[in-house]
User: Which sequence fits this backbone?
């Protein structure tokens, strides 16, 4: 059949020579995948049972990333999602239904808390928050209708290290699924499955991506029934991820070990320096004894990462902390973390930290030289100290005018 050139644009016979053996995974983009025969048409997501059916369930690039994350985390199956928050939503929606109950630590990632309290409740799920340091005491909170217990360790912003093995054990004994947000540990510094967790997720956006240029998430499991539930929900929710982003994540994986090593070193240098500053009440870094749950971190983790928080002394006013942050030059003000650039973010401390009075500042330490980062922080402290002494001198002068010195 000779084709018009218009048709040949769509159905070419030209092809590149075969046999290029790249070290990298090709980026396969595609919505449609061509099926074998009309008798064999179905749209099932499960690639362990049927061949590729539709791009939304993953192209070879997506599935290669999924397989490598599963291997790294010592899981069996992994789903890639469009972001970390999508991975969180997938877990909630796969395991919960109306009239059922979920337990979530107070220290959970904020958007996870908001999804549960603002959206799951609308669908009739009962949401209960628990003390992140509860440990085996979680057993008392598990009800007949409890279906899911979340952990995140260390917690977002407040950094409490949880007794994940005790919580996962209590859940398992009662037939409840345990889920862990393992983003801090990059899926490697804490072995979720060895410690008894059923479902583990990561924001690949953070350490696996590692360069602040992509958004992806992962959900990994070992159990076949969990795999089926998640796969079904993944398909129904349309959680396809961009193969281009997956390709960047595959590249990020190759340098994860060196980046994590340097980030850990830099972060510890900066966090230790902070614990010697008079304006700071406490430093929340899991490798420092001042962090709640530090002993659990020593017991269960093989390393620490790039984020920590500091709690300012309650006497340091919010406007002073804002001035401190605005004086920083290398630390940029922005959400997310795990990339190469140092970042900073301010929060009002929650009630459980010194009664909720002080200011809490979270740092992500990047790959700059640690001495430059410390110099930057030192100049920002100098700026607020100079402000304070200027203010004190001015107040002294005003007081002096009101009451003349005694003779
Ligand atoms: C950033 C983050 C997420 C969400 O990841 P996105 O890719 O930004 O949606 C989830 N959990 C934790 C602990 C995070 O820090």
Assistant:
């Amino acid at each position: 059949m000779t084709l018009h050139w218009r048709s040949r644009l769509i159905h070419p016979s030209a092809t590149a020579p075969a046999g290029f053996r790249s070290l990298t995974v090709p980026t396969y983009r595609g919505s449609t995948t061509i099926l074998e025969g009309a008798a064999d048409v179905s749209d099932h997501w499960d690639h362990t049972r049927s061949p590729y059916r539709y791009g939304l369930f993953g192209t070879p690039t997506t599935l290669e990333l999924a397989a490598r994350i599963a291997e790294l985390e010592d899981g069996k199956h992994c789903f890639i999602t469009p972001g970390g928050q999508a991975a969180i939503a997938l877990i909630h929606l796969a395991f919960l239904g109306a009239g059922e109950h979920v337990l979530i630590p107070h220290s959970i990632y904020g958007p996870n808390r908001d999804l549960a309290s603002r959206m799951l409740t609308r669908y009739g799920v009962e949401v209960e928050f628990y003390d992140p340091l509860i440990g085996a005491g979680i057993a008392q909170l598990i009800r007949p209708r409890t279906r899911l217990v979340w952990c995140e360790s260390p917690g977002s912003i407040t950094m409490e290290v949880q007794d994940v093995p005790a919580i996962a054990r209590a859940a398992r004994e009662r037939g409840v699924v345990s889920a862990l947000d393992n983003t801090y540990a990059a899926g490697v510094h804490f072995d979720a499955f060895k410690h008894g967790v059923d479902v583990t997720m990561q924001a690949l956006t953070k350490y696996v991506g590692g360069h602040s240029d992509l958004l992806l998430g992962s959900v990994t499991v070992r159990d076949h029934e969990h795999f089926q539930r998640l796969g079904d929900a993944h398909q129904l929710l349309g959680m396809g991820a961009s193969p281009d982003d997956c390709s960047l994540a595959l590249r990020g994986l190759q340098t994860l070990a060196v980046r994590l090593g340097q980030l850990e070193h830099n972060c510890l240098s900066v966090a230790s320096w902070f614990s010697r500053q008079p304006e700071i009440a406490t430093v929340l870094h899991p490798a420092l004894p001042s962090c709640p749950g530090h002993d659990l971190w020593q017991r269960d983790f093989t390393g620490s990462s790039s984020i920590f928080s500091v709690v300012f002394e309650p006497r340091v006013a919010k406007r002073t902390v804002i001035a401190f942050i605005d004086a920083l030059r290398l630390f940029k003000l922005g959400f997310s973390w795990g990339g190469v650039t140092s970042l900073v973010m301010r929060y009002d401390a929650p009630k459980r930290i010194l009664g909720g009075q002080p200011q809490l500042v979270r740092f992500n330490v990047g790959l700059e030289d640690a001495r430059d980062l410390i110099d930057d922080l030192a100049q920002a402290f100098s700026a607020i100290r100079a402000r304070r002494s200027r203010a004190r001198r001015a107040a002294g002068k005003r007081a002096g005018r009101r009451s003349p010195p005694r003779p």
Observations:
- The two ends are 115 Å apart (CA to CA).
- The chain has a mean pLDDT of 95.
- Residues 90 and 234 are 7 Å apart (CA to CA).
